[in-house]
Amino acid sequence: LKQFSTFNFQFSISPSLFPSNNLSYIIKKESIVNQCKTKTEEKLEYSQLLDEFILGCKTSRKIGMEYERIPLNKITKEVVSYGGDYGVCELLREFAKSDNWDYILDDTNIIGLKKLHDTITLEPGCQIELSIEPQEFIRDLKKKIEEIDSNLAPILDRFGIELINKGVSPTTTYKNIKLLPKRRYHIMANYLWGILSDVMMRETAGIQVGVDYSSEEDAMRKFRVANLMMPFATAMYANSKIRGGVDTGYKSFRALAWLNTDNERCGFATKFQDGMSFKDYVNLLLDTPMIFINRERTPLNINGRLTFKQFMEKGFEGFNATIEDWQLHSNLYFPEVRLRNFIEIRNHDCVGGGLEYSIPALYKGIMYSPSALEEVENLLCKYSFNEINELRYNVARYATSAKLRKTSISSICKELVEISYYSLKTQLEDEEKFLEPIMELLKKGKTPCEV
To answer: 15: Cβ–Cβ under 8 A, 6 or more apart, which residues?
Structure first.
C-alpha cells in the first residue's frame, strides 16, 4: 500500500467517450459535479493567471533539456509498440525495477517513470522522452543523460530495441503506429485539426530547451529573441528527410508537420512587438479554444466549444474554472516558443552524435549574456514578422539553403552560433566545445539529415 500510494490513479471511464444522452454518462457526470460542489470553489481571478508567470522570475541561470527519441525494433526497423512482451510498457517496467524509478500512471497504464527531478515519459506514438532536471552547466546535462542511457542500454539490448536520433520515424508512418493508452492523447488526437497532426503526434521526435528569466522584462526580451531565432535553429538541426522509407523532399518533415497542426495553438505566439508583457501572453491563452478539463482525475471533453475566457465567465456544464484548469490549458498550447515559469524553446529535430548538446549550448551562450542578446537583436530585428513567418515554411524544405531577402540564411546561422560560442568562451567553463559539432556542419554547408 505504501508503494502504491505514490501512484496517480485515475478513473478508467471517460464521460467524453459516451454520447450526452447515455445513462452511464449522465450518472457519472452528475456524480463528479456533486463531488466537486462539496468543495469550496472560489472564482478564478485574472491576477492568478498572471501570477503563474510572475512567480517564474528567478535569479538562477539554468538550462533544461527534453530529449525525445524514437524506439525501433533492431530487426524489423519498425517503431516498437506500447504493448506486448517486448513492447515499450514492459521496457519501462523492467527499467523501473533495475534502476529504482517510480511509475507514472494514467489509470492503470504505465506512461512514464520518475526519479527525483528526472522523468522518462512516453509521447503519443511511444517516443521516449528524457526530461532532465535543469542544470547550470551543459556538462551536467550530458552526464545525466549518459548515465540514464548507460543503465538503460542492457535492457534495450535484451528487448531488441534501439533509440534513434531522428526528427521523424524513417520507417513507420502513423497509420501503423498505435496511439499510446493515455486518455489525454486520445482526446487531443480527436481534437487537433490539420492535415499532419497525426504525423506530429505519432511520428516525430524533437529536442526542447528551457531557460530561466529574472523579471518580466527579461522574460519578454528572451521570448522575443527566441522566436526570432527559431526558424534558423530549425534549419540548422533539420534531421527528418526520410519518412516511411521515402525521401520526402523536405529536410525537416517534422517542422512541416508542426506547420500543419492546429494553427490556433501552434506556430508563433508573438508578432515580435516591443513592449510585449505577461498580460499579452495571458490574453492569447484566454482567447484560445479549450480541449478538455479534468475533474476527479477524469477528463471531460470541451472540444473547442469555448475559450478559457468564456469558461471563466460562464463555466462549463456546472463546473467553474480553477487554477489547475488554467495550468492544463497553458500546457495544451503549443507555440514554437512557449512561456511557462521558464521559456521553453521547442522546434528542433532530434539529433545525436554530440549535436544534441549543442542545442542547449546555443541558447545558454545567447540568453544569459546581455551583450550576446543585443548582438542577436541587431542581427535579426531588421526582419519583419511576415519575413520570419514565411521563413518557417521555407526552412522545412530547404533548411540552411532557404533564402531570406534573396540570400541564403546559412551565413546568419553561422553568425548566431559564433555569437554563442564567444559568449560561452568568456565564461571560462569550456562549454563552447559543445558548439563545435554544429559549427563544423555549418562550415561544410550541411545539415544533420545530409550526413
So the answer is: 25, 28, 29, 32, 298, 300, 301
Residue 393: partners with Cβ closer than 8 Å, 6 or more residues away: 259
DSSP single-letter state for residue 10: -
Q: In Å, how far are 141, 178, 203, 278 from 340, measured between CA atoms?
A: 21, 30, 25, 10
Cell numbers for 407, please give them.
540570400
DSSP string, 22-86: -HHHHHHHHHHHHHHHTS--PPPPHHHHHHHHHTT--S---EEEEEEEEEEETTT-PBPPSSSTT
Secondary structure (3-state) at 362: helix
- For residue 297, the model assigns a pLDDT of 84
Task: Output the CA–CA distances (angstroms, integers) from residue 18 to 11, 31, 72, 202, 297, in the order listed.
Answer: 14, 15, 35, 25, 17
The total of other beta-carbon atoms located within 10 Å of residue 136's CB is 13
Q: Cell numbers at residue 284, please?
A: 492569447
Within the chain, what is the greatest distance between any pair of CA atoms?
68
Cell of 318: 456546472
Radius of gyration of the chain (CA): 22
Length of the chain: 451
| Per-residue model confidence as pLDDT tens digits over 276-328 | 999 999 999 999 999 999 998 889 999 999 999 999 999 999 999 999 999 99
> Are the beta carbons of 133 and 117 closer than 8 angstroms?
yes
